[in-house]
Amino acid sequence: MAVVASAPGKVLITGGYLVLERPNAGLVLSTNARFYAIVKPIYPETRPDAWAWAWTDVRLTSPQLSREALYKLALKNLTIQTVSSSETRNPFVEYAVQYSVAAAYATFDQNKKDLLHKLLLQGLDITILGSNDFYSYRNEIERRGLPLTPESLATLPPFASISFNTDDANDGNRKPEVAKTGLGSSAAMTTAVVAALLHYLGVVKISSSKDHQDRMDIADLDMVHKIAQTAHCIAQGKVGSGFDVSSAVYGSHRYVRFSPEVISSTQVAATAVALPEVISDILKGNWDHDRTQFSLPPLMTLVLGEPGTGGSSTPSMVGAVKKWQKSDPQRALETWRRLSDANSALETQLNLLRKLAKEQWDAYKSVIDSCSILRSDKWIEQASEPNKEAVIKALLGSKEAMVGIRYHMRLMGEAAGVPIEPESQTQLLDATMNLEGVLLAGVPGAGGFDAVFAVTLGDSNSNVTKTWSSVNVLAMLVKEDPCGVSLETADPRTNEITSAVSSIRIE
């Protein structure tokens, strides 16, 4: 009787800051870190007097935080009210519930609306679970006396309890603060909840295929994307670039943001306007975002590291960069142009490597194997024939483009007065770039102290994890997984097979 959907976390390898403005693009990789949402009815059947009810129950459970929130959802205007303590509120899930139910009312005929009403009166039981990779377990590993390695992370149980800091100020009012790793947990969570709800309510049919090139449910994914983007933007109080939600829905790709106006009706909607009407306008709106297929070339591995030097506030860093843009527009424009050129150069070289892998696999694999055990200054020596030389030149071109990206990101940070690539990260990334088999290294997204990434050739990722561990940087278990949101066949905690809600499910 349960529907389980999952959505991946992300790593933005190019496009930091630029992706906030059209038509600048960003390359975003989805990962094997996934957020899960399990939706099922609270009550086994609809009560006989249910038609007289004006509201239904919603229960939200987060086992990793040992929390449960209870809500009442009004079935007339779809307002949602908390029944339990406001401390446990989750605005991302609240808006996901409201907008998903509104999407059902907006798209169903009267017969389906009657069935929807019955289904909703059974209540909505929602459980959310995030892969360990979304959260920092450095303190737990150190408490256990284990080394800062991926192997130590692997000893933790799946969906481990999340330790959080507490603030005893304000008369002992303790505010939980979960330590995150920057993979976009709120976007992945929102997307998983929206996908699970829309599938449960019969609005869409999400595929369980993990082959991102074999998806036949693009129209359904588009519906999930529009609802998840809107819910996520409203929950966070601003319209962001949306690359994190987009990758949670579609997987790895090249992304150009949507025009913010497309969801403006939600932000300014008067209370007199029924929410289904607002969502109907959203669904019919001109979603002009652009996504182009992209993923890492074959035999390359994404490695993500947690420096443990304290996180950075992305909103404040973005605010500082925008302030600098206004105060020195000419210099800002020139810096962005050069950064955009470097981003495009990296994208071109990586796409060329994918093309060479497809057309000249033997030469491509031979080069990757030989270069994976060499520093990049020795790679050109492996160019024993034209096919191999083409691959090596593309590898070196990628590396050169990454150096340019880092340079201009540092310049922008210095001009704006924010540590986009802090000095400690610069030393770490320079050392990483000089390791055998390392193609790329940088700070993902908006940069700062949150994380570092590397892209390695062949089996050379162990060089990176050992070097990082020696300087107190924890290499995570995250890898690229190009697949976006998908339907799961089992509860990820128990692997018990789930079944569709058949008694009253709307088809």
Secondary structure tally, helices: 16
Summed over residues and divided by their number, the pLDDT gives a mean of 89
Biggest sheet overview:
9 strands, mixed
Distance between the termini: 15 Å
Please give the share of residues in helix.
40-55%
The stretches of 5 or more residues where confidence is low (pLDDT under 50) are: 165-176, 499-505
Q: Name the quaternary structure.
A: single chain
Number of strands: 15
- The structural class is alpha+beta
Query: What Rg, in angstroms, do the CA atoms define?
Result: 24 Å
Assign an overall shape. globular
What share of residues are in beta strands? 15-25%
Provide an overview of this structure.
The protein is an alpha+beta fold. It is built from 16 helices and 15 strands. The strands form 3 sheets. Strands 1, 2, 3, 4, 5, 6, 9, 10 and 15 form a 9-stranded mixed β-sheet that branches. A 4-stranded antiparallel β-sheet has the order 12-13-11-14. Strands 7-8 form a two-stranded antiparallel ribbon. Helix 12 runs antiparallel to helix 14.
Features:
41% helix; 18% strand; disordered C terminus; 4-stranded antiparallel beta sheet; 9-stranded mixed beta sheet; 16 helices; globular; alpha+beta; 507 residues
Q: What's this entry about, in short?
A:
Helix content is 41%, strand content 18%.
Topology:
Blueprint: E1 3-14, E2 25-40, E3 55-62, E4 67-74, E5 80-82, H1 91-107, H2 110-120, E6 124-130, H3 138-143, H4 150-154, E7 164-165, H5 169-172, E8 177-178, H6 185-200, H7 218-236, H8 243-250, E9 253-256, H9 264-268, H10 275-284, E10 290-293, E11 300-306, H11 314-327, H12 329-359, H13 361-371, H14 386-416, H15 423-433, E12 438-442, E13 452-457, H16 461-470, E14 474-475, E15 486-488
Parallel strand pairs: 3-6
Antiparallel strand pairs: 1-2, 1-15, 2-6, 2-9, 3-4, 4-5, 7-8, 9-10, 11-13, 11-14, 12-13
